[in-house]
Amino acid sequence: MLDQSNGNGAVLPEIPAKKYFAIGEVSELCGVKPHVLRYWEQEFPLLNPVKRRGNRRYYQREDVLLVRKIRSLLYEQGYTIGGARLLLSSEGVRQAVIKETLIIQDMLDELDEIIELLK
Question: Is 52 exposed, middle or buried (0-12, 13-18, 19+ CB in 10 A)?
């Protein structure tokens, strides 16, 4: 994985291999304050950590990577929140289309194999 800067020239720490992260851990891993993470949850629908007992947030690895992406877009690349939201949603749509295309191609390949077997 590429090291990411925290904006002050320091490199963000490596993400530990664990399933869930508390908001404080994500704050440290991504170089943003917890209140910023809570705000971004409202602004970016893709950022939706699991909430458990007492409404405590538990982020998964994908959430941490998304926070780092959002942080990079806003702090390093100069996007507005609206622009970053639009970019992330279009990337999500693009990835879904690519995934569906691959699934369809696999199905067509399997059908071709079945046709060959039936001949």
Answer: exposed
Q: Please name each of the domains of the chain with its CATH number.
A: 21-118 (1.10.1660.10)
The alpha carbon dihedral of 96, 102, 103, 108 has a sign of: positive
* 58 in Cβ contact with 25 (< 8 Å): no
Query: Could you read off the pLDDT of 58-116 as tens digits, one per residue?
Result: 999 999 999 999 999 999 999 999 999 988 888 776 776 677 778 888 889 999 999 99
Separation of alpha carbons 104 and 116, rounded Å: 18
Prediction pTM value: 0.70
Give the containing element (helix H, strand E) for 50: strand 50-52
CA distances from 48 to 64, 86, 98 (A): 11, 17, 23
Angle at 27 (CA atoms; ends 21, 32), nearest 5 degrees: 150
